Amino acid sequence: MAAGFKTAEPLEYHRSFLKENCRPDGRELSEFRTTTLNIGSITTADGSALVKMGNTTIICGIKAELANPTVDAPGKGYIVPNVDLPPLCSSRFRPGPPGEQAQAASQFIADVIESSEVIETEDLCIDRGKLCWVLYCDIMCLDYDGNILDAAVVALLAALRNTQLPEVTVNKETSTPEVNFEKRHRLHIHKHPVGTSFCVFDDSVLIVDPTAEEESLSTAQLTVVTDEDDRLCSLHKPGGSSMSGEKLQECINRATARQREIQKLIEKVTHSVTTAQ
Amino acid sequence: MATVQVSEAEKVYILHGIRDDLRVDGRGCEDYRHMEIETDVVSNTDGSAKVTLGHTAVLVGIKAEIGKPRPMVPNEGYLEFFVDCSANATPEFEGRGGEELGTELSNTLYRVFNNKHSLDLRSLCISPGEHCWVLYVDVLLLQCDGNLYDAMSVAIKAALFNTKIPRVNISSDDEGGKEIELSDDPFDCMRLDVENVPCIVTLCKVGHRHVVDATLQEKACSVASLLISVTHKGAVTCARKVGGGSLDPESVFEMTEAGKRVGKALHAPLMALLRQEESLGMKRHKVGFLG
Amino acid sequence: MPTDTKRVRGPEVSQSPVLFGCRPAAVLPSHGPRADGRQRDQADVRPVFVRCGLVSQANGSAYMEAGSTKLMCCVYGPRETERKDETDMKCGRLTTDMRLAPFSCPVRGSWIQGTQDKDLSLMLYESLQPAVCLQKYPRSQIEVSVMVLENSGSVLAHAVTCASLALADAGIEMYDLVLGCSLCQDAGSYVVDPTYAEETSCGSGGGLTVAFLPSLNQISGLQSDGEMSEETLTAGVRTCIEGCYKLYPVIQQALIQALRRAAPPPSES
Q1: What's the domain count of chain A?
Q2: Is residue A6 situated within a structural domain?
Q3: Across chain C, which distance is largest between two alpha carbons, in Å?
Q4: Subunits that touch chain B (at least 3 Cβ pairs < 8 angstroms)?
Q5: Touching A: C residues 121-140, CB under 8 Å
Q6: Does the domain formed by C36-259 have CATH 3.30.230.70?
């Protein structure tokens, strides 16, 4: 009976739960799904992390390459984040070039990196005006069950924390770079931005960490990114129903609490990985 | 690939014939159809050949260009393959229809030549790490009547044999810079050693036996085929199962054995023919496309 | 050069630091025990870890690890054929899509599917298709997508195994499981289930990948490159089949385990 109701009237089905201040998967309105983190499992990448939030699974692999800096910014390196939603992760995605959602997600991640200053691109400079690092941050969804933005930000942050770059010296005579893979050093992570996504149901009810089904039924979506100093790094609200200032403040408060949880999780996992080595 | 519809009765007829080592066109199981080879058919390439096998027609043109060696192998040149499935060959190739087959064929060619002995890639090097010859091998399918792989590989071998790469001299000036000079004499050119270039033999499993050089009708009766590329010494440079069915291990072994035997036997007459045509020189009677 | 407007672009050229390593990569010995302690000239496959049904959105999925090769496969379908002109009234359509993640190899790969990926997809298709009862799914398509997360050698062989497991997990009718095994031949000796380093360092020899249906004793996929004599090829095929049989119980166990989880046996009470 319940299964039939769910398929025939998905919105009504969800509403009946929300009326009782809970959700079909048993969560409260402001409760996140269980988040697990796995760091450094991909040995071919310079840094990697796998995040699971409920069913949603996102992997981020970071590959560093050498390039020439631009003329406008001779002392800066590059960070190139890309989000891929391959056909593997859900039946809604087709093979081929990235779709609208993947493009929007890539742009969102790029904005978060830019505005939060998680890494100073100056740190990626090797030889001013001549050589710098490019960090290719390839974020890939392996199981799409909603809220990929939050998971992507966590995966990116954890992978950056995990990244170790080899030491590079520039040979004075031949002016070619020489890479010493034995000596590696970690990146300096300046800030820890963490995203928190919300969905608005029927223009009024606010829920956190939506699943794919909740996302498709909601009237608006909102992602708030804050860092450890409670600064607001990014606010992403693509269209949908309007929202009052109070509600927004509520969201920001929830986001700052979430930031603490995630940072603690990353610290814990990073610590367990380093002590295990 | 181009397909034909074969009725059940026809299938039985073909199957029974093959069982008795007699095929519809009178051939035995390991016989090729009539093959015609003509080299030097396209004047603005560095080497070319046209091969017809039954009604299958393939044209191969080779262009040599100076490029940069691959960073991993600085002292070798390399080959690039491109297979164009012309819409002339079969209406199925119209639009993007032939693209998939083209990639499949060219990927197989890369595999066939992916070893050290097929072609001496070092001879294609001009100056290590800086310049080398890149041979662009363009295959054009003019007509499809089964057994594209075999026809294509014979045509490539013939075209490589025919290829004349101009000689180059490297002169270094006072400042240590290098300059490449092409020889003025058009007859002063380098030839490739094609002795080790493999030929592909496709074996189709039909019933309990396998046939070489299957026609489209025979192909329609077969579940799977095995293609193997064999050098004149009998070394296998590539093997691949193609088609929708599966094969039991014993028939795979039988087919490899047969493929090696047939492939090995293919090389000597082919080389003799190519040399004979070459020796005719200017006296050669050109047949061209309409002959 | 056409610019890619759908992705965040980096600098126009960048080079992998691997090219500038200050000491040359260690050359693997061509005899004696292998770097990971396995034996040469034996069907010594790496222990595998397999798990079915990890992806919530897919009809069937499987994850596989062999050494540090990691890949996952999802199966969607059977569902209606998307392109109406390709609808087949008698027979279903199988599509395969295999990709190497950009961070899966020592040198970063591109997002755009290269010829290597296409070639692998085709090989995967040819190895799986004989095993799937496509005539049971008229007018529909079954999509198989494989993502290689870390390439530590023998990706095609493991992709075949993983994909057949995912197909079984999706409840697609098949004649048999398909198992894959590969080997690398080099100067008189061979290594089964080679690692990435072994694959790239085997110079004069060649590689061989076999896809095998174990209970029907049929070879559904075979591909080799490099130079081999006919005898070595035949011996190689035999060794790969032996390797597949070693894998078989592990794969069966994984399937049984997945089935148990999906439908727990009725309690005795």
Answers
A1: 1
A2: no
A3: 71
A4: C
A5: none
A6: yes
